[in-house]
Recover the amino acids of this structure.
């Protein structure tokens, strides 16, 4: 349905109802975001719904994760709702049609008259060994940096074997250095896991500053199952994968505050994890987030979710002015 909005000529009509108030606009990464709230990577794997998502009121859409090689992802079923927790477990496994296919599609998106800011998230192809990961990322970066408003190196998904090990500084530093060189003028960010220790988060934040990255995205899904209210048998039956949604909120906020305390004000920090309401988004912004992303609550809130967030942010800000 979201992909069909532009094709049916309904985008303009929908935008009249969903367009964020101009006062919500944010300047970041050398770009203008119509709203601080956007769609996290994982929702639009191949960049097929960017325009439609923008029509629904999202200020930016981060597509992917895209890999150099096309891959089908993990066997189905691979996504499970934990309804009592407003959460999801997924082990999608970077299912996508590859960097070349995405580059052609996103070039058309870039030329659209009305579109949100376009982020592109890249990861390691499953069949590529960890020791060959840098060249694999570079293949994706060469294809996708020219069509991205910003580029993200994803080293934090739990669903590709060996990927999270790339967060170790001795592996991460040369990887980011190489991708940054290929990305050229396209802003480069790195996306990290919530399961890192505080010390690891601080070291990656320092590395991002040292290498001159444009920003950090925190956080990806978690492998933890702590504190869930869903029947343990249901959780166990879902199996391995990354947990997202409300249970991730507290740790995601902790990591955001930790990063912001260790990086300069001008570094872009995008907060994601457990965000559902306008109050959640404003709390992240107050804690130092430049932008905020959501994904899981879309499955619970439906297509008007971005509009709910944007109108809620506007209401909160007006109430502060009137107070």
């Amino acid at each position: 349905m979201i992909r069909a909005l532009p094709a049916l000529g309904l985008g303009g009509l929908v935008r009249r109802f969903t367009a964020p108030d101009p006062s919500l606009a944010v300047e970041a990464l050398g770009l203008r975001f119509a709203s601080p709230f956007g769609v996290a990577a994982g929702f639009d794997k191949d960049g097929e719904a960017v325009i439609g998502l923008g029509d629904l009121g999202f200020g930016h859409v981060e597509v992917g994760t895209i890999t150099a090689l096309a891959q089908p992802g993990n066997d189905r079923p691979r996504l499970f709702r934990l309804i009592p927790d407003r959460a999801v477990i997924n082990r999608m496994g970077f299912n996508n049609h590859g960097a070349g296919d995405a580059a052609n599609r996103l070039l058309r998106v870039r030329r659209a008259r009305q579109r949100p800011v376009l982020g592109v998230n890249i990861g390691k192809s499953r069949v590529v060994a960890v020791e060959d990961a840098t060249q694999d990322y570079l293949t994706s970066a060469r294809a996708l940096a020219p069509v991205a408003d910003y580029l993200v190196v994803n080293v934090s998904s739990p669903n590709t074997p060996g990927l999270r090990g790339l967060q170790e500084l001795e592996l991460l530093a040369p990887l980011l250095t190489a991708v940054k060189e290929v990305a050229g003028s396209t802003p480069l960010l790195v996306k990290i896991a919530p399961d890192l220790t505080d010390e690891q988060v601080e070291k990656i934040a320092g590395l991002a500053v040292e290498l001159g990255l444009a920003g950090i995205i925190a956080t990806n899904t978690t492998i933890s199952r702590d504190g869930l209210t869903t029947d343990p048998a249901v959780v166990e039956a879902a199996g391995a994968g990354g947990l997202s949604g409300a249970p991730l909120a507290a740790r995601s906020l902790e990591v955001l505050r930790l990063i912001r305390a260790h990086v300069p004000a001008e570094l872009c920090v995008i907060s994601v994890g457990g965000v559902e309401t306008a109050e959640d988004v404003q709390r992240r912004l107050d804690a130092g987030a430049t932008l905020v992303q959501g994904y899981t609550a879309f499955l619970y809130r439906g297509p008007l979710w971005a509009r709910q967030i944007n109108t809620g942010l506007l209401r909160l800000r007006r109430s502060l002015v009137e107070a």
Remarks:
- The two ends are 41 Å apart (CA to CA).
- Residues 305-322 form the longest helix (18 residues).
- The chain is about 40% helix and 20% strand.
